[in-house]
Every structure is written in structure tokens, then in C-alpha cells.
Specification:
The structure holds two protein chains of two kinds. Chain A is built from two helices and 14 strands, in the order H-H-E-E-E-E-E-E-E-E-E-E-E-E-E-E. The termini of chain B are far apart. Chain B has a seven-stranded parallel beta sheet, sandwiched between helices. Classes of the chains: A mainly beta, B alpha/beta.
């Protein structure tokens, strides 16, 4: 939650920094945009297993609705809300009465977040912007029967994670309808997986901290304007981790309302 | 007072005699015959040139991996995707959607597995692991220990009964997860332990306590205690003899029964209290009597509150569960199964029975003096005396692996992980085998929660 407060503070600071121009030119520049995006990412997670570091992969599908307010030319803020299906399979829980290897697939949940983008300067055909996004995922607790024991028992998993992305975006604005861009981001994903076990008189809870191993994302994308109001976007990302690469893919449809 | 004392003595004698005369190795004449049969085992040739079947060499193939695509992915697309990684399809495992994939030359398995994990079309990808015989100790008599790993082998000399495949407590699979901790102490309250027995001397925490002779030298002058201690904690993977259930745990011998197999309750009460004060994590009591005792109950409560898991034999008379096993709140009462996972007719029964463990034709240590010079110091015995230390060994492994669990939780893990092997006749918990025959694998190895 400290991070979310920090992000809000950053957004408000930027907003106040540009506040004067908002007031002067709001009538000309304020615009409302709505967008839908779909994203897939797979991140290598690090977590501790009896003091021994272990890794697994978190595969996640995100479907987000963006409500984007362009406060002035070159400055947008947006709130995000949507659905996610996040699969933390591969994580082991050994602090429960019966140890568990979780391989049961994705857990659905909701996502809330915010993002902001501020154009900083242009150089020839290149526009340099600052970009920040913060999203929170809360999985809806899901339950599984434990099989093979002499009595009935269940486990429940409640996953949650947050993702903070911050970094510059370099956009190439020479083309009329198509704007490719490249971004290097600090991209931090961390959270918890809370596993509960209930087997008659036995009960246990294990809360496992997870964190994506790669803190850096390299993104390549492009926006294509179909009309003045509608644009399509696509983005691929890689997140290097030791000798391996995590990946992400994103598609976005955006509608502008002047 | 003396009348009470002699009565209690008689009760304990009765139990140990029943272990011995009916089923145990105190029937020396019979066991000497078995020993005579055991002797040729000196000539049993060793598999693998005497080397243990341990995990050696690479854990997985360096040239290929296994890839499972999602059911919606067609074969053409799957093979195209594989080619995109510079890899090639070797074969599809029949009846599955699993591709054996040869990775590009020079690529590492770890890297390509990690990269392929990012592909949303792929449900699962992993190295092509190499399986080996699971954590099989190199103890030369391990093949006789059907209780730990039952392959349906003959149990003893040629012509001996054969067990049912996997009617065992799944020790080898459990040892893959943990072989226990040397910090864990299993107190064996019995006739003592032969302190210099080659297959347990290195596992002893100390010379123990002798409450029969009131000294600190719990040397076994009967044989029963050495036999029981061997099942729970014989030195394992030492190229000789048998394997103990609690591979790495220490044994604390406490002599509470005399050479004739009789023991006053006061010895047992003091033994329980002393063992708990020494920090015993598990207390095994392969003994019992028909009479209740408030003081015995209080001693058990004392040890329980000190977080000692207490395991006791149900008895061998086809009668009600004996004490202390019948003290349900503090003790895991253990009945017997055989090499077919069946209940032997002599195993005691009652609602206090928690679990069962193998107790028929169980090979374990006997004192070196027992069969005399030239004989191997091992013998077959049976009774719930042999069943209880299997459970005590499991309790020791659990305490080592999960030190955060309280004693009642460990008892529940042992109960709930048992196999209900008599479910056809007695589904659920019953008076004969309790929750069932213990299953070390289920108790110790993580349960896979899958789709």
C-alpha cells in the first residue's frame, strides 16, 4: 500500500506541476478516452522454500477497461479496472500440516489500478514521455479437495499481487497513422499467496511472499489510428532474468471522445 | 502395596510374554531355527556390485525435454511452435498430448524450459527427468524389510510367504523428502538396547537410563528393546544390516522392563518422565498392561505437554487395547498389519486404535549375544511391538521436517495420512486398524493439488 500512496503522490505532484496550464487551456485540451486492453504475461517468481530460494512461473491474463482523461496536450491519467486470471502453479507450501505442491492452475480475480503518461520533450521525430502504471490484483479465494487422505480435507488459495511500472517511452512520430514506441521500465511485481488447509481438526495457514525475479522490462509497441476516434495498439515485452527471458503481450483498442 | 506392585508386574509380563511366546523372538528355540536360516544370507550377493542405488549422474536428459500443449492446440501448430524455438519433435507419447522435443544443439535445457514456459499455448514444459530407484538404502537386509518397501518379495528364506506388492508404509518415497534430523530423539522405553550393536551404536544419544537397576546404562539383557529400537532407528545406508524408519534420528534407550520381560509401572512412569525431561521428541512404548493407572496417565500427560509424541502397542491378544495405548488423549495406539495389508488375528482392537503398521515377520536387530557367535545379530519377530516403532519412526521424521507442528497435529497427520486398507470390510476409521496402515509418503511428501 505504501507504493500505491507513492504513486498517487507522484501523479498529484505532476498534476500540480502542470496545474496552471490545465486551467488556462482546459476547454481546448481536456479529452476523455476509453480503452479496452488484453494482456498476457509470464513472470519468473522467486520464493523461499525452507530457506532455499526457488522459482516458478506466474502466468496471467488481464482484461482491463481504461478510462483515460487527457488533462492537457501530452498529459494523460487513467483509472483501470478489470479481470485477471493468474496461475501461480509450481509454488510449494511446506509450512502446513500437510505440505502442498500447487499445480491447480489459474485463480480469477479483480484488478484495479491507475496509470499516467506525461510528454516531456520532443527531438526531431522522437517524443520522450514519462510513464507510470500501478495495478493491484486480488484473487477470489478458491478451494480444492485434498485427495488420498483417510478423511476429507480442503485447501484454499488466495493470491494477490501488485505491479508497478515506471520508465521513459520513446515514440517515433513521423508516420501519420502509426506510432511505434520503445520503453525501458522498472517493472516490479510482488505479492503473496495465502494457502489455508482444513482437515478435520487440523488447520494451517501459510502466507508465501512472491516476487518477480526480473525488475526490468523492455517493451516494443505501436499504436495505429484507424480513425480520428479509434486506435489499435499492440505491445510485446521481454524481462530478462539471468539466462532466461520473461515475456508479455498486450493488445489495446482505444476510443476518444472530444 | 507389595500386592499392587506384584499385580502390575504380572500385567507387564503378560504383555511381553505374549509378544514373545506367541509371536516374538523370545521363543528362542524357534528363532534359532530362523537364525540358522538367516546365516546363509552372509552369501547373498549384492546388487550393483555392493554400491547403493543412489541418485548419481545427471537428473535429466541434456538433449530433450517434454512439452505438453493445451488440448485446443492442433498438432501442426504445436510442431510449428516447437520449430520456432529451433527444436524438433522426437515423438508424441501415445495417448497423451506430450511431445518429446529435442532441443537445439548448444542450448541449455534450463533456458529453453524457462523460455517455453512463457508460451501461452503450452500447458506444461519440463526437463525429461531420469528416474532411479527411490532413496533405497544399501543395508544388506533391506530386501527383507517388506514393511518399508514391499515388492511382493519372499520374506525370509526361500519358501517364505510372499507379500502383496506395495503393502508397505512407503518409506523409500518418503525418504526422498526427508531422512530425518539428528536433532530428533526417539526414546525407546523397553528392555534397553544393546549399546554396542554394530547397526545401532552410532545412533544412540547416550547409554540411556536403566530404571530396573537404577543406573545410567540401559544395556539390553532381554533382546526385545534392541529389536524395537532397530525398527525405529537402526543405522541406515551403512552397507550392512537393516534400515531404520527414522534414518537420521537418535535413539535414547530407557530400560523399564527387566530381563524376564516384567516391569513395574513406577519404572515406566519414571521412564516416561525422564525421557520427556531429556527432550525426547518421540516416546515408543512397545509394552502394556490391562490395568489403568492414574499416575501412568499423568506421566503421559506430562510428556505430551512437553511435546513428545507418544506411541504404544495395542497388544497381541485379540482383546481390548492395553494401557498405555488405550489412553487416547495422549497416545497413538498402534495395531498390526501383515505383508498383505491384512490384520493378523492376534492384533488387539478397540476404539482407541489410531493406526496400524506392519507387525508380522518383521526383521530387526537382536543383541549380538542372542543367537551366539557366528550368527548374524538380526532376527524376525512379530507383534504390535514391531508395529509401534514404525509409527514412532514416522513421528520422528515428521518432527524433524515440521518442527512447527504441535504434538496433537503430528498425531493427526499420522492418522489422516494412513491408508484405509480394510475399507472393503470396515470403511473409515474402525476398531481394528484405526484410520488405516500408516503411509509415510502421504505424511511427508507434498500433496499435489492439481486441476
Amino acid at each position: 500500500m505504501k507504493i500505491s500512496r507513492l504513486l498517487v503522490a507522484v501523479i498529484l505532484s505532476v498534476a500540480s506541476w502542470t496545474g496552471a496550464s490545465f486551467g488556462q487551456t482546459a476547454a481546448d485540451r481536456v479529452a476523455l478516452k476509453a480503452a479496452l486492453s488484453g494482456e498476457y504475461f509470464a513472470r519468473t517468481l522467486g520464493w523461499d522454500d525452507e530457506a532455499k530460494p526457488r522459482t516458478s512461473t506466474l502466468k496471467t491474463y488481464l482484461a482491463l477497461a481504461h478510462v483515460n482523461l487527457q488533462l492537457m496536450e501530452g498529459f494523460d491519467i487513467a483509472v483501470l479496472a478489470g479481470y485477471a486470471s493468474s496461475d501461480p502453479s509450481g509454488v510449494s507450501f511446506k509450512k502446513l500440516p500437510f505440505s502442498i505442491d500447487f499445480e491447480a492452475g489459474a485463480v480469477s480475480g479483480y484488478v484495479l489500478g491507475a496509470e499516467a503518461r506525461k510528454s516531456l520533450f520532443t527531438y526531431q521525430n522522437f517524443e520522450i514521455s514519462a510513464y507510470g502504471q500501478f495495478v493491484v490484483y486480488r484473487g477470489v479465494e478458491k478451494s480444492w479437495e485434498l485427495e488420498g487422505l483417510s478423511v476429507d480435507g480442503t485447501v484454499e488459495l488466495a493470491p494477490a499481487w501488485t505491479r508497478l511500472a515506471l520508465g521513459p517511452v520513446v515514440a517515433y512520430r513521423r508516420f501519420l497513422n502509426f506510432t511505434p514506441y520503445f520503453s525501458v521500465q522498472y517493472n516490479r511485481l510482488s505479492g503473496t499467496l495465502e494457502m489455508r488447509q482444513n482437515i478435520q481438526t487440523l488447520a494451517g495457514i501459510e502466507k508465501k511472499a512472491i516476487k518477480a525475479k526480473s525488475p526490468v522490462a523492455l517493451l516494443l509497441g505501436g499504436d495505429y489510428a484507424l480513425t480520428d476516434e479509434i486506435s489499435l495498439g499492440g505491445e510485446v515485452g521481454i524481462m530478462p532474468y539471468q539466462s532466461s527471458l520473461d515475456t508479455s503481450f498486450k493488445l489495446k483498442v482505444q476510443i476518444s471522445f472530444q | 502395596m507389595s500386592i499392587v506392585r506384584s499385580r502390575k508386574t504380572a500385567l507387564v509380563i503378560l504383555l511381553l510374554t505374549s509378544f514373545g511366546l506367541s509371536h516374538g523372538f523370545q521363543q528362542r528355540g524357534r528363532q534359532r531355527t530362523i537364525s540358522g536360516s538367516v546365516r546363509p544370507r552372509r552369501e547373498i550377493r549384492l546388487f550393483n556390485d555392493g554400491h547403493p542405488f543412489q541418485a548419481r549422474g545427471p537428473r535429466f536428459s541434456r538433449t530433450d525435454i517434454l512439452v505438453k500443449f493445451k488440448p485446443s492446440v492442433r498438432r501442426l501448430w504445436a510442431e510449428t511452435a516447437i520449430s520456432a524455438y529451433g527444436a524438433s519433435t522426437e515423438r508424441i507419447i501415445p495417448g497423451t498430448n506430450i511431445y518429446k522435443v529435442r532441443i537445439p544443439e548448444g542450448a541449455s535445457v534450463e533456458t529453453i524450459v524457462q523460455v517455453m514456459k512463457q508460451n501461452p499455448s503450452i500447458e506444461h514444459v519440463e526437463p525429461n527427468y531420469i528416474a532411479r530407484i527411490a532413496a533405497t538404502p544399501n543395508d544388506t537386509l533391506f530386501n527383507l524389510q517388506y514393511a518399508l518397501y514391499n515388492t511382493g518379495q519372499e520374506i525370509g528364506v526361500p519358501g517364505s510367504p510372499q507379500g502383496k506388492n506395495r503393502a508397505d508404509i512407503k518409506a523409500t518415497a518418503a525418504w526422498e523428502e526427508t531422512k530425518g534430523s539428528a536433532d530428533i530423539v526417539i526414546a525407546v522405553l523397553d528392555t534397553g538396547v544393546e549399546l554396542l550393536h554394530p547397526d545401532i551404536k552410532n545412533k544412540l544419544m547416550s547409554a540411556g537410563r536403566d530404571l530396573v537397576n537404577d543406573d545410567f546404562d540401559a544395556t539390553d539383557d532381554n533382546g526385545h528393546g534392541t529389536y524395537v529400537a532397530g525398527i525405529a532407528g537402526a543405522e541406515t545406508n551403512n552397507n550392512s544390516g537393516i534400515a531404520g524408519v527414522a534414518w537420521n534420528a537418535k535413539i535414547l534407550p530407557v530400560k523399564v522392563v527387566d530381563k524376564d520381560g516384567s516391569g513395574f509401572y513406577d519404572w515406566i512412569i519414571e521412564g516416561i518422565t525422564w525421557a520427556a525431561d531429556q527432550g525426547a521428541d518421540v516416546i515408543n512404548l512397545s509394552l502394556g498392561g490391562e490395568d489403568t493407572s492414574q499416575l501412568l496417565l499423568e506421566a503421559l500427560e506430562y510428556a505430551y505437554k512437553k511435546q513428545a509424541v507418544i506411541v504404544a502397542s495395542a497388544g497381541n491378544d485379540d482383546a481390548a487395547v492395553l494401557y498405555p495405548a488405550a489412553y487416547d488423549d495422549y497416545v497413538l495406539a498402534v495395531s498390526a498389519t501383515d505383508y498383505n495389508d491384512s490384520r493378523p488375528s492376534w492384533s488387539n482392537k478397540g476404539p482407541q486404535v489410531d493406526v496400524a503398521a506392519p507387525g508380522v515377520r518383521i526383521v530387526s536387530l537382536v543383541p549380538t549375544w542372542y543367537f551366539g557367535p557366528g550368527s548374524l545379530p538380526y532376527g524376525f519377530g512379530e507383534g504390535t511391538s514391531a508395529s509401534a516403532p514404525h509409527v514412532a519412526g514416522l513421528a520422528g521424521l515428521l518432527k524433524g521436517l515440521k518442527p512447527f507442528l504441535k504434538v496433537n497435529e503430528i498425531m493427526d497427520v499420522i492418522r489422516f495420512s494412513s491408508d484405509d486398507v480394510n475399507s472393503a470390510e470396515q470403511p473409515g476409521k474402525d476398531d481394528f486398524l484405526g484410520y488405516g496402515r500408516i503411509n509415510m509418503e502421504k505424511a511427508l511428501v507434498p500433496i499435489k493439488v492439481s486441476k
